[in-house]
């Protein structure tokens, strides 16, 4: 995103005028409005934050996720969860971690056996 000085009428809603000539960015709103699904996990792989796109993609609400261990919120077989868990733990060591296209079935909200791949 390119930020330059502009009159207040032309400043995008995600930008807020700061003191003097600086422009502050509302990072909370920016994160929430990104069209790509994002989640923030802590070192114990518990949800700390998710954006609207993540909630829409997974069919969950924020209250169902925040504070929960990722594989309690989205259980699966060890075969399904192992590649993602290994990649996340590798990332925690500071090493580069790459997950190729990953199909992880997610139970549809309110259904026991209804699952879809994301």
Note down, in words, how this protein is organized.
The protein is of the alpha+beta class and 118 residues long. The protein folds into two domains: 7-35, no CATH class; 37-109, no CATH class. Helices cover 31% and strands 16% of the residues. The protein has five helices and six strands, in the order E-E-H-E-E-H-H-H-H-E-E. The strands form three sheets. It has a two-stranded antiparallel ribbon with strand order 1-2. A hairpin with a 5-residue loop joins strand 3 (39-41) and strand 4 (47-50). The longest helix is centred in the last third of the chain and has 15 residues, at 78-92. It is globular and about 45 Å long. The protein starts with 14 loop residues before the first strand and ends with a strand.
Overall geometric form: globular
Strand content: 15-25%
Q: Main sheet, how many strands, which sense, barrel? A: 2 strands, antiparallel
- The number of helical segments is 5
The tally of structural domains comes to 2
| Class computed from helices, strands and strand pairing | alpha+beta
SSE pattern: EEHEEHHHHEE
Radius of gyration: 18 Å
Helix content: 25-40%
Q: Which sequence of strands runs across the widest sheet?
A: 1-2
Brief summary:
With 118 residues, the chain is of the alpha+beta class. Helices cover 31% and strands 16% of the residues.
Relevant terms:
globular, two-stranded antiparallel sheet, 118 residues, 16% strand, disordered N terminus, 6 strands, alpha+beta
